[in-house]
Amino acid sequence: MSEPQILLEAHEVAKHFGGVKALHDVSLTIRRGEIYGLIGPNGAGKTTFFNCLTGLYKNESGHFVFDGEKLAADAPHKAAEVGIA
Fold it and tell me: Which intervals of the chain form a coiled coil (predicted)?
């Protein structure tokens, strides 16, 4: 049995709000056909992560790759075009 293809990758994504580090070098890999959950307490950065992924926030560093294509960091319309909303 072959390993599922990678659908989404986050590479060392960081986002700050003033002096507050909302995300600090977050990396993850999501494989096609699998189900994942992102959990954590209030203020852990879950919403910030998704806002960076969808282009609503511009991350300070790092990047996302969706289905083999690097996503533009500040283009919500591009994320929506590939099915991320």
Answer: none
CATH number for position 26 = 3.40.50.300
Q: What is the pLDDT of residue 8?
A: 96
Q: What DSSP string describes the chain?
A: -PPPPEEEEEEEEEEEETTEEEEEEEEEEEETT--------TTSSHHHHHHHHTTSS--SEEEEEETTEEPPTT-HHHHHHTT--
Give the model's pLDDT for residue 1: 61
